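hey so u asked for the seq, here:
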Amino acid sequence: ERLFATVDEVASRSYQLHGRTLFARSELERELALLGLRRGWYRAYILRLGGRPAAFWTGYSYGGWFGWRGATGYDPAFHSHSPGTYTLFRLIEALSDDPAVTQFDLGGGDTDYKPRFADRRWQEIDVRLLGPGMRLLGINAVGTTFHAVHHGLRGVGAAFGIHTAPTRLLRRRL
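ran it, structure tokens below
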């Protein structure tokens, strides 16, 4: 319970979770973490600064990999100290001492730290499979329109030298 409360304290202030919590909002996350703790799969790394939780990184270690369903976050009050990066360094240090972990998956998304710490990257795509019918044709048209607008905005941004995802730009402005 102390682990859940500490992670949620930081998560509620982090931009990564947009003011939400990780465990208080989801019984599924809580139960998965409890199962992982019982089986030795779940790990949580928490950084405290001045006795106050400042950053966390959670994940699962299974089958030689670490990272599945992991979450990370930091308190923006400590932004100038890069608590998330420091926590990541300590996490990598701990994982490198564990012979059971041979791969570290940083997860999806395009945050700034991932190209600095990853040695491989791959693109994933969503595939929509819809049956016949006018209703489903309309649903596909809406989805295709949103997809085209999203990629169009990314293309315009790239043309102006902006390589940050539009959603991250919006988060920063908010």
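The helical segments are 2-11, 27-39, 83-96, 113-117, 134-159, 166-173. The chain has a mean pLDDT of 85.
lmk if thats what u needed
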